[in-house]
C-alpha cells in the first residue's frame, strides 16, 4: 500500500492475535516493526520471525527492521521508555497501533474497583498515554505520524457483564475523535478499527467450542467470525497514504454484526 515502505511502526500487545497479524502485515508492506509485549518475549519472538519470513522470505537479509520492546501499557514509565527505545533504535516513529487490550467478565454490581481499574488502565488510559507519547514524538520530528486504535464493536454495542471493557472501548471512540480534531492541523491522523467477533486467544472460550461458536456466528449477518488478517488489512489501509484524508473515524469490521442480525426479517408492521 502507498506510503508504508520504510515507515517505523510500534504495535502494542503484538505477540498474539490481532496485534501479531498487524505486525506481520505492516512488515509485509515494508514497515519497520517494533513489537511490544508485556511479559514473555517468546511469543513476541514468534511474531518477529513470522513477520520477517512473510515480509522477506529470507530472514538473514531482510530489509525490514524489527525490534522487541517489553512494556506494560498500564505503566506510564514503561510507555515513555518504550517510545524512547523505538525512536532511539529506528530514528523516528511514524505509526502507533494501540492494540493491547484485556477483558474480564463480572456482574456490574459485583466488580471490584481494582479489577475495573485494571481493564481501563490497559485499554483506555494505556492507549491514551501511548498516543500522548507518540504525538509528542510526531511533533518533535516535524513530520506527521498516524495512530490507529483497536477498538471493538462494543464501542457502540453495550456488553452486559463486561462493563469495564464496554466503557474502555466507548471512551476510545471519543479519544480517537478528540485527538483527531486536536492535531488535524499538524496533519496527524487518528483513526480506529472496531473488530467484531474475531478468532484470537482472547476468545478461546467460544472459538474452541463448536456449539458456542455456532451461537456467536448466528448473530453475525455474514455467518462467520472474522480473522486477525482481515483486521490487519484495514489497519494497513488506514496507516497508508491511501487514507490521507481520513481522520477521527472508526471503521467497523464485523461481518455486519452492527447491522443487528435479529432485524434481518421484518419484525413490525
Ligand atoms: P489477544 O489476547 O490475543 O491480544 C491482546 C494482547 O494484548 C496480548 O498480546 C496481550 O499480551 C497484550 N496485553 C494485555 N495487557 C497488556 C499490557 N498491560 N501491556 C502490553 N500488552 C498487553 O486478543 P486480541 O483479540 O488479539 O485483542 C487485540 C485487541 O483487539 C484488543 O484491544 C481487543 O479488545 C480488540 N478486539 C478483539 C476482538 C476479538 O473478537 N478478538 C473484538 C474486538 C476488539
Write the layout of secondary structure elements.
Layout: E1 8-11, H1 17-28, E2 32-37, H2 41-56, E3 66-70, H3 76-90, E4 95-98, H4 113-141, E5 146-150, H5 163-183, E6 189-195, H6 204-207, H7 210-218, H8 228-239, E7 250-253
Helix pairs in contact: 1-2, 1-8, 3-4, 4-5
The structure holds nicotinamide-adenine-dinucleotide (NAD).
The small-molecule ligands in this entry are: nicotinamide-adenine-dinucleotide
From the alpha carbons, calculate the radius of gyration and give it in angstroms. Answer: 18 Å
Shape: globular
Content-based structural category:
alpha/beta
Beta strands, count: 7
- Percent of sequence in beta strands: 5-15%
The major sheet is characterized as: 7 strands, parallel
Q: What pattern of helices and strands is seen along the backbone? A: EHEHEHEHEHEHHHE
Helix content: 40-55%
Q: Uncertain spans, ≥5 residues at pLDDT below 50? A: none
- Which CATH class? Alpha Beta
User: What do the pLDDT scores average to?
Assistant: 96
Number of domains: 1
Query: How many helical stretches?
Result: 8
Strand order of the largest sheet: 3-2-1-4-5-6-7
Judging by the overall fold, what is the CATH architecture?
3-Layer(aba) Sandwich
List the keywords.
269 residues, Rossmann fold, globular, binds nicotinamide-adenine-dinucleotide
